[in-house]
């Protein structure tokens, strides 16, 4: 099941629904398998993955569905809680979704009889992204087309509310910077907010629009990446509020930007879903050209494995996985 060419996926998993969003758990859940969540038109599915790249006894990859949660509406974004533990007795799965009805839903399950969910109301337009506080997991931040970033407690109470100047596209919370929130706006501005004073403390500019996605590098807190128009852009926040590096990558328009979780020079971008295929590109800052090009039939979502240089994209009743070099 190895790659024969750059375009072929390393692995695929068949899914019971169209996959709008896919997310590896970025936190350690105390198990040798990786948790993955994917969302479709009606369901969220939680499963585990194990790859031959991390376990010689696995042939290719092993995938197992742990539980399917009825969602009743299209899933637009998923965030994992650091409180998810597979090594606890009983285990705990906790994640939050954003849906097309402008609500957040917080799910908590022991994978047996206890399956709870709470609905958070407040956003007045489409929710584009959400994230849990990375260390304790007691708060959730979300950004929306309603020009707000909101921070919620786990009961659904609004703890903070930032007014933006355009649609909020991405929100990031870094485990080493627990009192700061990064918010990326469609107008090309990325701001950092101090959660204690609830003030903006730093801003970065793309100087081009629309900014569709941004990410805060796990391995280097000074590095921010984004896609705007058809370009990717990288900032070093210690140097300038303007991009240090940028390059046109997707002919039509770029849609998502995600840093690898294992290497501060590795990142992936996707293009807009075309009529038939979505292009995935994996980039390394030391290389002038993408180091991997993949295509997925009407793909959406983009996520990196917690400990491997491996990323996944959702598609039509499938998840596609690509393994790349470090």
From TrEMBL:
InterPro entries linked: NUP37, WD40/YVTN_repeat-like_dom_sf, WD40_repeat_CS, WD40_repeat_dom_sf, WD40_rpt
Alphabetically ordered keywords of this record: Cell cycle, Cell division, Centromere, Chromosome, Chromosome partition, Kinetochore, Mitosis, mRNA transport, Nuclear pore complex, Nucleus, Protein transport, Repeat, Translocation, Transport, WD repeat
GO BP annotations, alphabetical order: cell division; chromosome segregation; mRNA transport; protein transport
GO cellular component terms, A-Z: kinetochore; nuclear pore outer ring
Cell location: Chromosome, Centromere, Kinetochore; Nucleus, Nuclear pore complex
Superkingdom classification of source: Eukaryota
Tagged with keyword Repeat: yes
WD repeat windows: 120-162
Residue ranges the record marks as coiled coil: none
Subunit (UniProt): Component of the Nup107-160 subcomplex of the nuclear pore complex (NPC). The Nup107-160 subcomplex includes NUP160, NUP133, NUP107, NUP98, NUP85, NUP43, NUP37, SEH1 and SEC13.
Function recorded in the entry: Component of the Nup107-160 subcomplex of the nuclear pore complex (NPC). The Nup107-160 subcomplex is required for the assembly of a functional NPC. The Nup107-160 subcomplex is also required for normal kinetochore microtubule attachment, mitotic progression and chromosome segregation.
Name of the protein in its database record: Nucleoporin Nup37
Taxonomic source organism: Setophaga kirtlandii (Kirtland's warbler)
Lineage of source species: Eukaryota, Metazoa, Chordata, Craniata, Vertebrata
């Amino acid at each position: 099941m190895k790659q024969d060419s750059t375009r072929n996926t390393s692995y695929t998993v068949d899914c019971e629904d169209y996959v709008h969003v896919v997310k590896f758990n970025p936190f350690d859940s105390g198990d040798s398998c990786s948790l993955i969540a994917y969302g479709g038109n009606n369901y969220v599915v939680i499963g585990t993955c194990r790859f031959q790249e991390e376990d010689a006894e696995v042939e290719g990859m092993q995938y197992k569905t742990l539980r399917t949660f009825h969602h009743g509406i299209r899933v637009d974004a998923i965030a994992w809680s650091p409180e998810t533990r597979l090594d606890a007795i009983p285990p705990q799965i906790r994640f939050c979704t954003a849906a097309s009805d402008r609500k957040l839903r917080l799910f908590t399950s022991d994978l047996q009889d206890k399956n709870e969910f709470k609905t958070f109301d407040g956003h007045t337009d489409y929710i584009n992204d959400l994230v849990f506080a990375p260390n304790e997991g007691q708060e959730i931040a979300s950004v929306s087309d309603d020009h707000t970033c909101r921070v919620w407690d786990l009961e659904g109470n609004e703890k903070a509310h930032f007014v933006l100047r355009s649609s909020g596209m991405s929100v990031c919370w870094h485990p080493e910077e627990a009192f700061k929130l990064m918010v990326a706006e469609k107008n090309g501005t990325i701001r950092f907010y101090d959660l204690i004073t609830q003030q903006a403390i730093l801003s970065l500019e793309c100087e081009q629009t629309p900014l569709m996605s941004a990410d805060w590098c796990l391995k280097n807190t000074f590095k921010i990446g984004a896609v705007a128009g058809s370009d990717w852009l990288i900032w070093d926040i210690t140097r300038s509020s303007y991009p240090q590096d940028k390059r046109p990558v997707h002919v039509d328009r770029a849609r998502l930007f995600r840093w690898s979780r294992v290497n501060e020079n590795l990142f992936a971008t996707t293009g807009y879903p075309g009529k038939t295929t979505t292009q995935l590109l994996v980039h390394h800052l030391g290389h002038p050209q993408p180091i991997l090009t993949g295509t997925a039939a009407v793909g959406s979502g983009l996520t990196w494995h917690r400990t491997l240089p491996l990323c996944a994209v959702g598609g039509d009743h499938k998840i596609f996985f690509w393994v790349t070099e470090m």
